[in-house]
Amino acid sequence: MESGKKLSGTLVLAVFTATLGSLQYGYSLGVINAPQKVIERHYARSLGVLPQNFSRSLNSTEEAGSHPSVVMYWSLSVAIFSIGGVFSSFLVGFVGDLRGRVKGMLMVNVFAIAGGLLMGLARMGTPHLMVVSGRAVMGFYCGLSSGLVPMYIGEIAPMEYRGALGTLHQLAIVTGILISQVIGLDFLLGNDEMWPLLLGLSGAPAILQILLLPLCPESPRYLYIKMGKEEEARKCLKRFKGEYDPSKDIEEMKKEKEEAMKEAQVSIMKLVRSSVYRQQLLVAVVMHLSQQFSGINAIFYYSTTIFHNAGIAQPVYATIGVGVINTIFTMVSVVLVDRAGRRTLTLIGLGGMCCCAVTMSVGLIFQSTYAWMSYVSMSAIFLFVCFFETGPGPIPWFIVAELFSQGPRPAAIALAGFCNWTSNFIVGMFFPYVEALCGSYVFIIFAVILFGSTVFTYCRVPETKGKTFEEIAAEFHHRRHRPPPESNATTELEHLKSSTEA
């Protein structure tokens, strides 16, 4: 049985291949920011705002960027990515169940390649239309990928490594963001000649993933519970874990399948209406909402201004520094998540972010009075990112797969993904207006949201570390049906026993 506890080469390959989709998601999130001024000039030329032989001076760039048509198409280029994700997130369950998790990830890569080609060939057509179209298609792909990847990894990961492997989804996202920030520098690809290639590379990891996915086994849980193929599930378990007796894992899946067969197929509407899954769904949705409404994306929007006000000559490099810290602390989370636990790290992260948001607000409010307050704001930004990646960043993506059994899992991941993408769009679209209205007090809003999220996590989110899917479901069942006083002692003994075994 010991060999079943080791990380086999096949498991490592499968997780690496799956997270290539997450890498594309992160790259697509970050790639659009660095070449903004360059792309706006090409939009202006295409729209007739600037002549074909336009000047590349600062004045012409600012003039082009402020034209209403250019502003509209640029805003659409940024926002359409999230809109594509909102729509496709509802299809995650359908695609995952249609032909399996592996074939599902393989099929959706056609969108990644199509989106990359549209953007990469933008200068050969109408730049503003091709970039908007490419971003929409890429967003559609990323909405599917951001659901399929955690679903697959959550189902194939051994229980003792489930948290660490699940965190790799977020690590791949922040790595993609960092890569896009670095190669988007002016002297690399973020310039007038190379920007289409910079955007087109969004679809490059899809080619590698297409080559590697046929080498990856299907999810044993999908094969056994959804398709009833026990022998194939046993073979896949042995490929993932090496030569060992898979009877214990099969028995666990058998119990999960028996529970799933007691109910009809769980659609998104049934999931929303069902009282059986209400507590799990509330936890999943609130964790995804708190991830986006924490203000992490607003931090990236605002950081360049703060760094500029602090006297840094090249604020873009400071922003890349934030990206580096982002990546490093996601790695820290990979190490800690199966030791400290999901609930503990989420609480530490949300509480720390709340304190940082307050500190940042104080720094912004008194920045004009005391010059050194700019550095207080800068420090708060770096710490904010550190706390985010410790827990609230990576954990919501994979904990949904832990909270739900096989039956409702695809619908739950689709609904949580929809909430994540929608809140992402809301923050990205409306933060500039809220910031203009509230000024230096804008992060007080996020501090209040973070405080509420911390209280909710403390009161409602269970610890899932070291527990089987069945044990996690049983914990929510006990919460719904509080035992009478005379059975409390028995319940506590059973709980202690299951905790000891885990």
Automatic annotation (TrEMBL):
TM regions (residue ranges): 7-27, 71-94, 106-124, 136-153, 165-189, 195-216, 281-304, 316-337, 344-366, 372-390, 411-434, 440-459
Cited PROSITE patterns: MFS, SUGAR_TRANSPORT_1, SUGAR_TRANSPORT_2
InterPro entries, per database record: GLUT (IPR045263), MFS_dom (IPR020846), MFS_sugar_transport-like (IPR005828), MFS_trans_sf (IPR036259), Sugar/inositol_transpt (IPR003663), Sugar_transporter_CS (IPR005829)
Gene Ontology annotations for the cellular component aspect, listed alphabetically: brush border; plasma membrane
Biased composition (Basic and acidic residues): 492-502
Family: Belongs to the major facilitator superfamily. Sugar transporter (TC 2.A.1.1) family.
Keyword terms of this UniProt record: Membrane, Transmembrane, Transmembrane helix, Transport
Topology of the protein relative to the lipid bilayer: Multi-pass membrane protein
Organism: Synaphobranchus kaupii
Keyword Zinc-finger tagged: no
Annotated ranges, domain Major facilitator superfamily (MFS) profile: 14-465
GO molecular function, one term: D-glucose transmembrane transporter activity
Protein name (record): Major facilitator superfamily (MFS) profile domain-containing protein
One annotated GO biological process: dehydroascorbic acid transport
Region (Disordered) residue spans: 479-502
Subcellular location(s) per record: Membrane
